[in-house]
């Protein structure tokens, strides 16, 4: 049985950060191949489609790059997702706590505001690693298409991380995706999760309900912000080949995609993204609310509920 989010307090912030980090690591390990397929499908241009769908992408990836090709960039992603989930999940709880200090029930607007603030906190920390993850995932695809092999030395990785940091401040690409995602996801999850409570006197929730709530909320939020994710991925991808489209910012990217590929292009990889985000957040929420961090820090049940 998992605890209700409302039972957490600011005193347990270190435990929340541990819970979020472990939750992210477990979740991303399970769904990383789908995330890789999503990135490669989003980067396909009209007339240059190497992959027909998610399964075709995974099969071709295994044939051309081997089994571990499906985990290209996984080390970076694990490094990225640990602070990302730790900050996002813990920050949401923190801001919800701050916004409900008067003892009143959180309004939907305050829940959305808490999610927005959580998304901002996460983006500031994780943007450089996100940039590197996208480029590593795309590298194998470019090699399979006949482009020159992409090699990442320690110097190149440092340069890419600096470039990613610059993009955080110049283009705010992840804010374009992660803030709307958090605004949709966290309030929806909170309301779905609350439906699983046994009673007002017993706010505990079965673990499977936490998983289902995380999956459902993650799926809805992922599809809702898929157009933002497509634009972000296009702008973050590797240098284009001679016949491939280049973009000069968000507005130019949106305009060219609409003109040359149509509105449907903004939903490229949406199903893959939903398949990634749904179980990722379902697993993450279960691990987060089970209380691994509290156990590791030596909290007893009495300390947890009286904190």
TrEMBL record:
Coiled coil: none annotated. The chain crosses the membrane at residues 17-37, 168-188, 208-231, 274-297. GO terms for cellular component: mitochondrial inner membrane. GO terms for biological process: malate-aspartate shuttle. SUPFAM superfamilies: Mitochondrial carrier. Its main location: mitochondrion. Keywords: Membrane, Mitochondrion, Mitochondrion inner membrane, Repeat, Transmembrane, Transmembrane helix, Transport. Solcar repeats lie at residues 11-98, 205-294. It is found in: Mitochondrion inner membrane. Gene3D superfamilies: Mitochondrial carrier domain (1.50.40.10). It is a multi-pass membrane protein. It comes from the Eukaryota. Pfam families: Mito_carr (PF00153). One of its GO terms (molecular function) is L-aspartate transmembrane transporter activity. Belongs to the mitochondrial carrier (TC 2.A.29) family. This is Solute carrier family 25 member 55b. It comes from Salarias fasciatus. The gene is LOC115408621.
